[in-house]
Amino acid sequence: MKLSCMASLAALFIALPAAAQPSARPMGPGSMPVFADFDGNGDGRITEQEFTDARSKRIAERATEGRAMRGLSQAVDFKEIDTNGDGALSREEFEANQSRHVQNRPMSPAR
Fold first, then answer.
1. How many Å apart are CA 38 and CA 94, to the nearest integer?
2. Is 4 inside a domain boundary?
3. Does 69 or 91 have the greater pLDDT score?
4. Most exposed of 49, 79, 93, 103 (fewest Cβ within 10 Å)?
5. 70 φ, ψ to 5°?
6. What distance in Å separates the CA atoms of residue 51 and residue 18, rounded to the nearest whole number?
7. 108 phi and psi angles, rounded to 5 deg
8. 66 vs 50: CA distance, rounded Å
9. Residues in domain EF-hand (predicted)?
10. Domain limits at 42?
11. CATH code at 49?
């Protein structure tokens, strides 16, 4: 009994560091990207190049999956999201844009 309990605890302590690591999030239908998806170098700011690269990658992945590109023509420009005009997106600017995007989404019909 003690041995199996100790083995379980050991397995838990081995698994905890792995669980704490960021993992790839599944990007299923309707999922929203998060700040880290765009902050390529992890410096806490998203440059216009990082934004463009991440957006292009997301579009390419969705196209490869055969997913619809609804709303792409209405996608906001980097400069519209960069509300303070400093040439980089803060987490707050990015998340404010995501919130606006969610609020402006058409509601899905009930199933």
1. 9
2. no
3. 91
4. 103
5. -60, 140
6. 28
7. -75, 145
8. 24
9. 34-61, 78-104
10. 35-105
11. 1.10.238.10
- Residue 1 inside a domain? The answer is no
Tokens 């960069």, residue?
A: 82
pLDDT digits (tens, 9 = 90+) for 30-88: 578 899 999 999 999 999 999 999 999 999 998 999 988 777 888 899 999 999 999 99
Model confidence, pTM: 0.65
Q: How far apart are CA 98 and CA 76, in angstroms?
A: 11
d(C-alpha 46, C-alpha 88), whole Å: 5
69 within domain boundaries: yes
36-43 contacts at long range (C-beta below 8 A, 24 or more positions apart) = 38/89, 38/94
Residue that has been written with the tokens 């400069």 in this structure? 79
What spatial distance separates the first Cα and last Cα of the chain, rounded to whole Å?
49
H-state helical runs in the chain = 2-20, 35-38, 48-64, 78-81, 91-104
